[in-house]
Design brief:
Largest sheet: 3 strands, antiparallel
Oligomer: single chain
Low-confidence stretches: 1-8
Distance between the termini: 76 Å
Helix content: 40-55%
Bound molecules: FE2/S2 (inorganic) cluster
Shape: elongated
Order of helices and strands: HHEEEHHHH
Number of strands: 3
Mean pLDDT: 91
Structural class: alpha+beta
Radius of gyration: 18 Å
């Protein structure tokens, strides 16, 4: 009977259906289920954290070589929107020059995700802001605007 096969795929299909009904695209759901860049980097050049107004927190692990983003991982204590946005953000900046990665905008992430619920758009902002904060901190520690300040 066809029903006998439901159990084997039940869990992820159930989540898929729930997220789809809530307004997430297949692409966003795929990012959420696969979480390809979720975790930490032991050799990160910069780690920064940001907490959103919703109370959810993200830590971004950034690895840079020769002025390019070579690796990024996110630790996300947050919702499905936050996780899918963070994963999409990594795909957009990996391999890019650090300056170009800093120019990432919410709209770029939204276009990759295609669709997420309107009330989850702030989750994209959190993922992007957390990345900006991490890149700024990296730039500041590696290329201080006022180098003399470090001799104080
Ligand atoms: Fe907080 Fe999505 S509800 S990041």
């Amino acid at each position: 009977m066809p029903g006998e096969f439901i159990e084997t795929t039940g869990a992820s299909n159930g989540i898929r259906e729930m997220l789809s009904n809530a307004g997430y695209s297949d692409k966003a759901i795929q990012y959420y289920l696969e979480k390809p860049y979720m975790g930490s980097l032991s050799n990160a050049d910069q780690v920064s954290e940001m907490t959103g107004t919703c109370g959810d927190t993200m830590a971004v692990y950034l690895k840079v070589a020769h002025g390019k983003v070579t690796d990024v991982m996110y630790q996300v204590m947050g919702c499905a929107g936050a996780i899918s946005a963070a994963m999409a953000a990594v795909d957009l900046v990996k391999g890019k020059k650090i300056e170009d990665a800093r120019n990432l905008e919410d709209g770029d992430v939204f276009r990759v995700l295609q669709e997420i619920p309107v009330k989850k758009h702030h989750c994209i902002q959190l993922a992007v802001k957390a990345l900006h904060k991490t890149i700024d901190a990296y730039q500041e520690s590696h290329h201080p605007k006022n180098p003399k300040a470090s001799f104080k």
